[in-house]
Amino acid sequence: MVAVTPETGTSSTADARSGDLADQLRASFDAAVAAEERVEPRDWMPDEYRASLVRQMAQHAHSEIIGMQPEANWITRAPSLRRKAILMAKVQDEAGHGLYLYSAAETLGTSRDELLDKLHAGKQKYSSIFNYPTLTWADVGAIGWLVDGAAITNQVPICRCSYGPYARAMVRICKEESFHQRQGYELLLALSRGTEAQHAMAQDAVDRWWWPSLMMFGPPDDESAHSAQSMAWRIKRHSNDELRQRFVDIAVPQAESLGLTLPDPDIKWNEERGHHDFGAIDWAEFWDVLKGNGPCNEQRINQRRTAHEEGAWVRDAAAAYAEKHTSTGREVQA
Ligand code: FAQ
């Protein structure tokens, strides 16, 4: 990889755009990525690689932060102290994931403030899944089992992403997501084995979250604008459809163990393919949610904007504290 230092050049692609140097930098970058070397923040990288990473990492970070809302909705109504403590820890973990990812995105020269401004202005996306409501306590279990399960399936390969800071952030995130998935599974198992009403509540939650969970993996491969380039750059290691299939294959036996039915009569094992076949996804619904027309889009973004405004005093206080201690030369304690 070409380390960019004052001696070897500058990180501005504009400087390298013309002539041999640009070609050499590009060739060296492509060769390093093909050889599975990690790209680090001070290495030269094509502008489009940087922009694509910022796009994906920002969307990922925003998803973690907005994703706190549906489950936080149930913290005050968790059915026991144990469940409440677990749920609070999970929601806090999601905040932490967002912060790791904003920090990783900052290494690409974009500030967290800038990314948040874009989210609040509707210029950057967050995952479609968080635009659905959590109507019952069982939804907390369905999110853990299905949404975190889908998130892990998608994110484990990102631990091998070509961009170092993103790959390293994902290692810790995936460990925590595994705990989240297990807690959701365990919660649903308790409900499924409970009273008839509890079992019905678990089934209803799975009925509502199954299809949106499959949509989390993104559009079908032939409609995925970014997959080919992101896979060539080894940002993505598998296509949207490959990961969706992997998730279905994992979820089917888990649903059986839970004693719950997946709401798709077309799911069946295909011996020839060595995978489960499954029914058609309603892509019109997916694109509609992306356009802002899901059941909770407006509520989610309004709540996010309000939380940001209400947190202004915390940011101001932290900045004033840092300024005071920097100007007096004293160390700022974390
Ligand atoms: N929702 O060309 P592609 C979590 C957009 S974290 C919204 O296939 P790409 C943890 C896409 O951005 C969940 N938009 O895009 C948790 C693009 O639009 P653009 C988030 C979507 O990037 C659990 C357009 O459609 N995970 O759940 C979605 O190659 C529980 C065309 O799509 C990540 O972000 C979608 N589902 O592949 C938290 C993982 N899918 O940008 C709380 C990292 C696609 O041109 C509670 N991201 N779009 O305007 C990825 O792996 C990829 O970005 C994909 C999309 C696979 C999501």
TrEMBL record:
<protein>
    <submittedName>
        <fullName>1,2-phenylacetyl-CoA epoxidase, subunit A</fullName>
        <ecNumber>1.14.13.149</ecNumber>
    </submittedName>
</protein>
<dbReference type="Pfam" id="PF05138">
    <property type="entry name" value="PaaA_PaaC"/>
</dbReference>
<dbReference type="InterPro" id="IPR052703">
    <property type="entry name" value="Aromatic_CoA_ox/epox"/>
</dbReference>
<dbReference type="GO" id="GO:0010124">
    <property type="term" value="P:phenylacetate catabolic process"/>
</dbReference>
<dbReference type="InterPro" id="IPR009078">
    <property type="entry name" value="Ferritin-like_SF"/>
</dbReference>
<dbReference type="GO" id="GO:0097266">
    <property type="term" value="F:phenylacetyl-CoA 1,2-epoxidase activity"/>
</dbReference>
<dbReference type="GO" id="GO:0005829">
    <property type="term" value="C:cytosol"/>
</dbReference>
<keyword id="KW-0560">Oxidoreductase</keyword>
<dbReference type="InterPro" id="IPR012347">
    <property type="entry name" value="Ferritin-like"/>
</dbReference>
<dbReference type="InterPro" id="IPR007814">
    <property type="entry name" value="PaaA_PaaC"/>
</dbReference>
<dbReference type="InterPro" id="IPR011881">
    <property type="entry name" value="PaaA"/>
</dbReference>
